[in-house]
């Protein structure tokens, strides 16, 4: 696990089924998570109160879902092979183009 990450433990000593580890930077208000599958995501605009709720939660997987859906929180990047790749959500134009590609 990368330096500075906390292992995700649910219900005392049991590893989380969803998350391997996480870290929060209150200065940048970014929350990073690494899944059990190895995906590494960065979420921005995470309030310290939201991060504290995550820390206190007995189920880190459920708390991670709540954090990602908290008002104002957005996925800002994915870390691949140690490199930060900005995340670009689908736009209306992209969605409609994608839908046209998927039509039979």
Number of domains: 1
Task: Give the helices and strands as they follow along the chain.
Answer: EEEEEEHHEEH
Q: Strand content of the residues, in percent?
A: 25-35%
| Mean pLDDT across all amino acids | 87
| Sheet/helix structural class | alpha+beta
Report the end-to-end length measured between terminal Cα atoms. 44 Å
Shape: globular
Q: Rg from C-alpha positions? A: 15 Å
Q: With helices defined by DSSP (H or I, 4 residues minimum), what is the helix count?
A: 3
* Low-confidence regions: none
Describe the main β-sheet briefly. 6 strands, antiparallel
Total count of strands = 8
Question: Roughly how much helix do the residues carry, as a percent range?
Answer: 25-40%
Order of adjacent strands in the largest pleated sheet: 1-4-5-6-7-8
